[in-house]
Design brief:
Helix content is 30%, strand content 22%. With 433 residues, it is α+β, with helices and mostly antiparallel strands. The longest helix has 17 residues, at 188-204.
Length: 433
């Protein structure tokens, strides 16, 4: 919602942004001080002395990283919200196989040294990576007999004779699919996802992921500032009493007895329970540790993906780990957040393989949230509802949702270049340097 309010303001719309909370970012906020996190999860007492100063903590409720070459980074660059934020590269990406974790080989040299694969497998994987790097959907000469719109990904893996383990980590740790449904779909999307991973990685070398200092709560604040620069108004602590509808169309929002009139409304599912449907659940467990995760070379930040095949599930389990290096935890402390899509009546048992990798855990905070999707696309009502955050550990699916809402609101595709031009009209070119 914050990103859209920034984008809509740049587009010349008059934006009023209301939030019933006293902080920015709704359910994707970062909670500080630590005492507030204990309160939020109804834990008795206060954090122990050993946790350091409460103010040193900024704990994300929804863990996600940014792909260095991904859509959110483009949005940040084009809107220049980057001037309000500082990023660090996440130190490594790991994948789980047979009860152990291995670094995801990200370069040819790493692939050749990796103990994830045997020698011949490595050669085949290398050939596959070279193929993907050269693949250009506009140049049939790079297809080598593959039809990007027809050939399934399963067939592409067969073409390179890749074994099950390699397929697992390619699909889940490089292409970042949550399930194996992609195998029987045309390969173009998967190849582009692997390219995005490799290009993101090429930018900084250690991993393809970035993370903002002081936590993800900085992102909505940055876009709120952008909105303000373009004349948007922001109101925190603003209770929403009613969404006012006339003849099936939104005309305003009632708060504290007054109605703010509008032609279009953007909100998350929590404001319009009658226009959304439950599509699943996510479990997230925030863990405070006093040590880096074992077998990660003492990285102060990393991502671990547990592919579903490895733990007999239908969807992957993710772990994001960050630390005092990102100004989100006290000195010597680490925050690891495990998340996955709920599949059974015992979600805590489902996430156990991830928690086992994190032991010993000093304190954990468990949340199980419902996932909602809009049943009303806003065509008639002009109410545009976002989807709940999923279990993935990067922002690509969130950006897809933003572009989808933009298209439904504006009737045209979201165009990065167009946005850049609009900004230049207001700021002038020369100031951008």
């Amino acid at each position: 919602e914050c990103i859209l309010s920034g984008i809509m303001s740049v587009n010349g719309k008059k934006v009023l942004h209301m939030d019933r909370n006293s902080y920015y970012g709704g359910e994707s906020a970062s909670i500080t001080p630590l005492e507030d996190l204990y309160k939020r999860f109804n834990l008795p007492g206060t954090p122990p002395e050993s946790m350091g100063r409460g103010r040193d903590w900024n704990v994300d409720l929804i863990p996600k990283f940014l792909m260095a070459n991904g859509q959110l980074v483009k949005m940040l660059l084009y809107t220049e919200v980057t001037r309000y934020l500082d990023f660090k590269v996440i130190e490594g990406s790991f994948v789980y196989k047979g009860g152990k974790i291995y670094k995801v080989p990200s370069t040819e040299a790493e692939a050749l040294a990796s103990s994830l694969m045997g020698l011949f497998e490595k050669r085949r994987f290398r050939k596959f990576l070279v193929y993907v790097a050269n693949f250009d959907e506009n140049d049939p000469r790079t297809f080598e007999g593959v039809d990007p719109k027809k050939t399934t990904m399963r067939d592409v893996y067969k073409k390179f004779d890749l074994g099950q383990d390699v397929i697992d980590f390619t699909g889940h740790a490089l292409a970042l699919y949550r399930t194996d449904d992609y195998l029987d779909q045309p390969c173009q999307e998967t190849i582009n996802r692997i390219k995005l991973y490799s290009e993101s990685l090429a930018r900084y070398g250690k991993s393809p992921y970035l993370y903002p200092l002081y936590g993800l709560g900085e992102l909505p604040q940055g876009f709120a500032r952008l909105s303000a620069i373009y004349g948007g108004t922001y109101m925190l602590n603003k209770p929403i009493e009613e969404i006012v509808i006339e003849n099936g169309k939104v005309v305003g929002v009632k708060s504290e007895g007054e109605v703010a009139r509008c032609k279009q409304l953007i909100c998350d599912p929590s404001y319009v329970s009658d226009r959304v449907t439950k599509v699943g659940q996510v479990i997230r467990v925030i863990c405070i540790l006093s040590h880096p995760i074992k077998n990660t070379n003492d990285a102060n930040s990393c991502q671990i993906i547990i592919p579903q095949n490895q733990v007999n599930r239908k969807s992957d389990i993710y772990v994001c780990m960050i630390s005092s290096a990102h100004n989100v935890a006290a000195q010597g402390k680490y925050i690891a957040i495990a998340s996955t899509t709920v599949e059974t009546a015992d979600p805590e048992k489902e996430i156990k393989p991830a928690l086992d990798l994190l032991e010993p855990i000093e304190q954990k905070f468990v949340s199980i949230s419902d996932l909602f999707a809009p049943t009303d696309l806003g065509t008639e009502s002009q109410i545009f509802i976002s989807r709940t955050y999923d279990a993935t550990t990067h922002f690509e699916t969130t950006c897809d949702d933003i572009k989808d809402i933009y298209k439904r609101m504006m009737g045209s595709e979201f165009d990065f270049e167009e946005m850049k031009r609009k900004k230049n009209d207001i700021y002038g070119e020369e100031e951008q340097q």
